[in-house]
Amino acid sequence: MQVVQAYRFALDPTARQGAALASHCGAVRVAFNWGLAQVKANLAQREAERSYGIPDDQLTPALSWSMYSLRKRWNQVKDEVAPWWAGNSKEAYACGLARLTDALSNWRDSQQGTRKGPKMGFPRFKTKRRAARSVRFTTGTIRLDGHTHVILPVLGRIKTHEPVGKLARLLAEGARIASATVRWQEGRWHVSFTVHTERPPGKPARPDAVIGVDLGIKTLAVFSDGRPPVPNPRHLNNAMRKLRRLSRAVARKHGPDRRTGQRPSQRWQRANAARNRAEYRVAALRRDGIHQLTTSLARTYGTIVVEDLHVAGMIRNRRLARALSDAGFGEIRRQLAYKTGWNGGRLLVASRWFPSSKTCSSCGAVKTKLPLRVRTYVCEGCGLSMDRDENAALNLASLVERTVAGSGPETENGRGADRKTPPGGAGGCETSTPHRAPTARIRRGPSPTPGESLRILETQ
Ligand SMILES: [Zn+2]
């Protein structure tokens, strides 16, 4: 199976190389801002002319947003706009203009309603302070040098913080690097290679096994087949005391002040770096835990059933936001989607409106209400009494049998991963977010098969 996979390595550039990397990222921003200024001026000019009643065919011609024409214009004016341009790779400017082209077409498509997802605004100028520092190289010398260095255009040979042997072996077997992106992330420079590689077809250890996974805050994951539940590690929570202390230490010191132009003191910088390290540690622990969970599931089970949690909507709930973000539901789902694909399994996603918690896994009765604080599911009909999340996991697993096996919520490409989150109402079955009227809950995308339709799409 041909896959596109990213390999990210932390870098250990010298001070000079670090400055060159920062300069490249600055060049990306300058090119982006230059292009945006051109486009904005052109749009404003045409708008003004229109307001004077000039007919459309006599207006100042519209500026093309294509990457090609922007690059052509940039090359004509770069000596004036950025006389220092030769200090950076041309890829940096191309990268900035490509990002502008993407941003503009996203905006236009969003305006015209041809783009899915939330509304995209008109691109804004990037500021030195806020803009993420990153630059992408797509041409030129991009390769590994031994197991400890990478080679990038203009920047040359940079030492990596961690060994790159795994990728080196892959490249020796015929994998191909399509691009390299250097980013300042988590207090370090990282390079991430986009690699086209052949992945041997995988097979899960138990291809016929079905597992329902109920994700939650109390317990991160509860399974339908008796596999021990994964406790929520709550990394952020555990680090909170320490983070507060470190933040106080930063606040007491002489920090930067834009209004007065005050530079941060050495002590402030040290304290700030310590706080950042503590934050990065939380992120790294979370990332590691989620990868271990999803890899183990995808390698073991042929079919994994999860709920379509509306994470973005749930995060709007202030009381849950921090715990939800710390748990990383969205990332778990994303990783399960591609890892089941890699391992020859499939991921089924139950509709957001499937009452997995409120249904009795024994007799199928559905409760109208089940507040979050009730941790044990007790069925009035058949007398079943079991852990709330276990009950939900069982319901998810049994969804596979109830839908036509192999053609239910599974999708055209066989990965079961392309079921798009439907637009509209916030909140899953378990949030306290106000729900919209049922009429708003129209699911777009592949229409459900007759067997599944009522069950999965059932509203509460
Ligand atoms: Zn029951």
UniProtKB/TrEMBL annotation:
Residues 412-421 have a biased composition (Basic and acidic residues). Residues 250-269, 404-460 are annotated as: Disordered. It comes from the Bacteria. Pfam families: Cas12f1-like_TNB, HTH_OrfB_IS605, OrfB_IS605. Residues 197-317 form the Probable transposase IS891/IS1136/IS1341 domain. Residues 329-396 form the Cas12f1-like TNB domain. InterPro entries: Cas12f1-like_TNB, RNA-guided_DNA_endo/Transpos, RNA-guided_DNA_endonuclease, Transposase, Transposase_put_HTH. Keywords: DNA recombination, DNA-binding, Metal-binding, Transposition, Zinc. NCBIfam families: guided_TnpB, IS607_TnpB. In the C-terminal section; belongs to the transposase 35 family. In the N-terminal section; belongs to the transposase 2 family. This is Transposase. It comes from Nonomuraea glycinis.
